[in-house]
Amino acid sequence: xxxxxxxxxxxxxxxxxxxxxxxxxxxxxxxxxxxxxxxxxxxxxxxxxxxxxxxxxxxxxxxxxxxxxxxxxxxxxxxxxxxxxxxxxxxxxxxxxxxxxxxxxxxxxxxxxxxxxxxxxxxxxxxxxxxxxxxxxxxxxxxxxxxxxxxxxxxxxxx
Length: 159
Description:
By secondary structure, the protein is of the alpha+beta class. Helices cover 45% and strands 19% of the residues.
């Protein structure tokens, strides 16, 4: 009985290793070399962006940005840097986590802008003109003790 358990475990681990090996080979074969890297943040969202030579595609967490971002406003926000700078010869591979979808779209915009500036510093004045490198540092204010929220007080009782 113990032998059958051991053989099942080894078969499962071998199958997992085979799957992992196949995935890494496929992923490594189709991606071109990274040109530059940028990080964008907004509220609690963090977007890490890698630029590669390509056709202007943006891939967010393994999905096309048009699928990932549900509204047109968020799609436009994420693609704004490429539209304004008329960049079509780079692909952006983005890993984003935290925050909400709106914050993630703005974090992606900032990350792409920073990666483009890292690759080509000559476009920095144009980016500044379009306010693509401006960080929106507004974050949620913390709750204070003795209060119901950040600024909201408990209901006043006279007696």
